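User: Could you go from structure to sequence for me? I need the amino acid at each position, not a summary. Structure tokens:
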């Protein structure tokens, strides 16, 4: 058989010639000084390396280098989603207000929702998340249990009018998110899908070079029962975490840690003069006892408008998020309110509390019967106050409101917890039927009955992830990109841009590109010092330095940006050497 015809077809296939980039024309305007607007190292470096620019508060432009990294992060996400059968698609960023009214979130979401009207006065919002849109999408057309489970996702800009947009890409008002929504027939199915997404999220973090902890989280605005956040560990993170060597980790907002409470001494109830001791530390010092043995009293007005006092161990804080779960939209009493309700600031206690004020206590205090507390009288405390004898907390007034902290017992294994800070890069939720019920999204089950979908939702902050990578990978000279998400893998730095050195630089750049590497050549007519400083600032993983003498001796110097190690490599072997170093480190 003759094959000419087939050969011809193959030859006619268009092949794109890959080329290396040139630094002289790369749009990456670098800055010598730290920009005043930036606090975090990662924010400063992304600005200084010419990767992002602020267009307005919370609105950033991604310049070409940042965009290359973002596309790599997205590629990792796409691979991991495809591997578990999630399907990529795209819905409009603009969401009809109607859908948000359906779910009840139009009112609930507050001023973070960027709302607008069209020319006919119809309400819309710029999507901060898309549960409504996706639920609406399937509610009429995904009909049978036979079609389930289905997981749909998109990578798209999201909009949130954050109260304090800051830290560059960390908290923007427009940012890139990957968001996925799963529809299952059963709770078990939803849990399985959730676990798959959760595992994929762990791999995504790892493949992007992030050290991240999966932490038990509060489910916030989205709602639902079970949720995990991936926290990139970094001192600059906004979230406070507790974690244990056994693998347990939790946001302090959600952790129900085993708080150990010191028991007070037994005896007859005794009122003691504690002059000026309104603060816990002063009381503990005055009575020569541990802060944990005292009780902190917080006067609040609950979401229902009722006055209440909440007790937590003296050495712990009350957590706002937990307290909101317990009391609704509560607030701490103002000085005027404290007075109005007949309380004495700094000396509030459970014995002789004015009438009509409810008492609540953190569950950890169930361990202790003998309390040291304020006497509801200026400058006085009670010691030996016995629960059950001198005061009582009713059974349904034990609440989980204390913030977990370093040294509390791990709820899983009992060892002491450590504290860290983290950047939330992603979060997965089991939603159950929250949205499907509110929006009437049902399917026909095997038993012939209409049932609401069991849903999950899964979000990754793509742009935040980029900055989190920089926050974890930098030094005093600049960014230290892990290979997996580096804008380029190699920078060729000829110290002479004419004659033989230039020829060799171009040849090596071409060879490296042909070997499949991503290469930028610093062809600028700049001093060596400037080129080195910029190379370190931009932080591509490998630098190939070519000087006159080296080239004459047939050698290039290859520097590993992460370790600072330099090796001399024969000019002919540079491309191969780089390939061996780089390919195994790709995402
Ligand atoms: P945060 O608690 O930081 O405000 P969130 O819990 O409200 O975030 P989600 O609704 O879980 O955020 O959104 C999914 C992901 O989107 C987050 O894990 C985070 O990585 C990213 N993200 C959320 N808000 C922003 C923002 N303002 N700027 C950049 N990324 C964001
Ligand atoms: Mg979140």
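Assistant: Here is the amino acid at each position, in order:
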């Amino acid at each position: 058989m003759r094959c000419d015809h087939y050969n011809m077809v193959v030859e006619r296939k268009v092949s794109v010639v890959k080329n290396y980039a040139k630094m002289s024309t790369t749009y990456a305007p670098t800055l010598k000084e730290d920009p005043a607007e930036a606090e975090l190292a990662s924010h400063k470096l992304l600005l200084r390396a010419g990767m992002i620019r602020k267009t307005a508060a919370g609105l950033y432009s991604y310049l070409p280098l940042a965009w290359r990294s973002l596309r790599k992060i997205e590629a990792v996400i796409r691979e991991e989603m495809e591997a578990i059968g999630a399907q990529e698609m795209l819905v409009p960023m603009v969401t009809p207000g109607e859908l948000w009214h359906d779910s009840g979130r139009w009112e609930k979401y507050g001023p973070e929702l960027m709302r607008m009207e069209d020319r006919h006065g119809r309400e819309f919002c710029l999507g901060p998340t898309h549960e409504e849109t996706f639920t609406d999408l399937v509610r009429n057309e995904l009909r049978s249990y036979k079609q389930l489970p289905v997981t749909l996702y998109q990578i798209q800009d999201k909009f949130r009018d954050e109260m304090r947009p800051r830290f560059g890409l960390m908290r923007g008002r427009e940012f890139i998110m990957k968001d996925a929504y799963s529809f299952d027939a059963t709770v078990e199915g939803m849990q399985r899908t959730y676990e798959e997404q959760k595992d994929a999220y762990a791999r995504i973090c790892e493949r992007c070079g992030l050290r991240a902890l999966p932490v038990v989280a509060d489910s916030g605005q989205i709602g639902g029962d079970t949720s995990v956040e991936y926290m990139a560990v970094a001192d600059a993170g906004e979230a406070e975490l507790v974690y244990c060597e056994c693998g347990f980790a939790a946001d302090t907002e959600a952790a129900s840690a085993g708080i150990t409470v010191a028991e007070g001494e037994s005896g007859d109830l005794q009122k003691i003069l504690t002059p000026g001791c309104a603060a816990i530390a002063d009381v503990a010092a005055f009575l020569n006892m541990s802060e944990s043995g005292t009780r902190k009293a917080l006067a609040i007005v609950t979401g229902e408008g009722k006055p209440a006092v909440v007790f937590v161990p003296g050495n712990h804080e009350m957590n706002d998020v937990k307290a909101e779960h317990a009391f609704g939209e509560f607030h701490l009493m103002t000085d005027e309110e404290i007075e109005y309700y007949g309380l004495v600031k700094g000396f509030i206690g459970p014995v002789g509390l004015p009438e009509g004020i409810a008492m609540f206590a953190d569950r950890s205090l169930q361990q202790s019967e003998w309390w040291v507390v304020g006497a509801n009288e200026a400058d006085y405390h009670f010691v030996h106050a016995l629960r059950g004898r001198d005061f009582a907390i009713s059974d349904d007034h034990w609440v989980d409101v204390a913030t977990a902290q370093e040294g509390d017992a791990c709820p899983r294994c009992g060892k002491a917890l450590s504290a860290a800070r983290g950047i939330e890069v992603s979060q997965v939720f089991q939603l159950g039927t929250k949205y499907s019920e509110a929006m009437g999204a049902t399917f026909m089950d095997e038993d012939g009955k209409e049932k609401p979908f069991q849903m999950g939702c899964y979000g990754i902050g793509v742009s935040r992830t980029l900055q989190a990578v920089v926050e974890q990978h930098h030094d005093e000279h600049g960014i230290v990109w892990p290979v997996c998400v580096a804008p380029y893998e190699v920078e060729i730095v000829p110290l002479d841009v004419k004659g033989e050195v230039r020829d060799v630089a171009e040849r090596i750049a071409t060879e490296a590109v042909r070997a499949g590497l991503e290469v930028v050549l610093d062809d600028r007519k700049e001093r060596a010092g400037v080129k080195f400083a910029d190379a370190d600032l931009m932080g591509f993983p490998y630098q190939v330095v070519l000087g006159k003498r080296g080239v004459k001796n047939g050698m290039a110097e290859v520097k590993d940006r992460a370790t600072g190690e330099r090796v001399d490599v024969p000019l002919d072997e540079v491309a191969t050497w780089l390939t061996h170093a780089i390919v195994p480190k790709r995402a």
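One structural detail worth keeping in mind: Residues 187-207 form the longest helix (21 residues).
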